[in-house]
Amino acid sequence: MMKALVVEDEGLTRDLLSSLLKREFDFDEIAQASDGDEAWQLFLGDEYTFIMIDLIIPKLDGLKLARRILEHDRGQKIIVLSSECDDYTVKEVSRSGIFGYIDKPGMSEFVLLEAIRTVEQSRYAARVYFKVFES
Asked: Which residues are recorded with the post-translational modification 4-aspartylphosphate (predicted)?
């Protein structure tokens, strides 16, 4: 049974991400959390094959949550989303073992689908960075 967890504090974005996962991929169940503490409790109580986390969330930030999850299960496939696209953030995400990083300002359905497909098909923690650069 394939299960996904979407961690996003903005309700509309959380619902859109969950809807996209349900519509385009073979997830049997999609759980949602609006903050890091809630997500951690959900993670401990179930097994997820895929997790999407906003980096800027209340109570336990997304990077700390992702690191905690990866300490518990190194093989967990995680994509993080953020509007913070500075070099430091990208470097920290890359070092952490997270599979992919999506820059929210460049996020579109195409970018999301490509990122999710790439990470879902990866057998190794190949770092995937998805950003749309404006010309």
From this structure: 54
Would residue 135 count as lying in a domain?
no
Q: How many domains does the chain have?
A: 1
CA distance 30 to 16: 12
Domain limits for position 95:
3-130
Alpha helices in 33-129 (DSSP H): 36-45, 62-72, 87-96, 109-121
Residues 6+ apart with CB under 8 A from 3: 27, 28, 29, 30, 31, 46, 47, 48, 49, 50
How many whole angstroms separate alpha carbon 4 and alpha carbon 79?
11
CA distance 51 to 40: 11
Question: For position 67, which CATH number holds?
Answer: 3.40.50.2300
Query: Residue 130: which pLDDT band, with cuts at 50, 70 and 90?
Result: low
Predicted model pTM = 0.85
* Cβ within 8 Å of residue 125, ≥6 positions away: 97, 99
Is 52 in a helix, a strand, or coil? strand
